[in-house]
Design goal:
This protein has helices at residues 34-53, 63-68, 103-116, 125-138, 143-150, 155-159; strands at 8-9, 14-17, 25-28, 83-89, 96-100. By secondary structure, it is α+β, with helices and mostly antiparallel strands. The strands form 2 sheets. A 3-stranded antiparallel beta sheet has the order 1-2-3. A hairpin with a 4-residue loop joins β1 (8-9) and β2 (14-17). It is elongated. The N and C termini lie far apart (40 Å).
Length: 177
């Protein structure tokens, strides 16, 4: 939810994901969404422009960045990829600014999409992450690469995904299949 414009790299087809504890990682930008994402970002640019016209405070940055780069929050590169449609008041600083959309809204949309698709399991954002890792394993991708994409510090965490892979242990597909 907290992706910034600068986190999307269309030329390299990569997305930088800011993780917990300053553990950033890079993952793939699917080519299939490139066009729609570009259109979305064009519409976000209009929201950014209105915020600048209205003199709103820039988007929130981490404490250290806010002090080191006091005007960065007003720069396009730091704006949210998924900004909230509403302006809000920061409860601690009382600064009026735009935040990113609420994570609960995304979770609700994912859940509804699963219901509409007739999927009989509970669908969550984390389930999508789990599916991503599982599919990569099923396609034979290296476990270390998957570890890096998921941002796991310990390989054992990534190895949890290996128990759900549907191929046999040898990774061989029957000619009949």
């Amino acid at each position: 939810m907290n992706l910034r414009i600068k986190d999307i790299d269309f030329s390299r087809m990569a997305v930088t994901v800011r993780g917990k504890g300053d553990k950033d990682r890079e993952t793939v930008l699917p080519g299939s969404i490139k066009g729609n994402l570009r259109k979305h970002i064009e519409s976000v640019r209009k929201i950014y422009g209105k915020d600048r016209e209205n003199g709103l405070a820039g988007v929130q940055l981490s404490g250290a960045l806010e002090r080191k780069l006091p005007n960065a929050g007003k720069e396009w590169a730091w704006f949210w990829v998924f900004p909230s449609h509403k302006i809000s008041v920061d409860p601690t600083t009382h600064i009026i600014r735009r935040h990113h959309i609420y994570a609960g809204n995304l979770q609700r949309q994912i859940k509804q999409a699963g219901i509409r698709a007739g999927i009989p399991k509970r669908i969550t954002v984390h389930a999508l992450r789990h599916s991503f890792a599982t599919h990569l394993l099923e396609k034979g991708h290296d476990i270390r690469t998957i570890q890096e994409l998921l941002g796991h510090a310990d390989l054992r965490t990534t190895m949890i995904y290996t128990h759900v892979v549907s191929k046999n242990r040898l990774g061989i597909i029957s000619r009949l299949d």
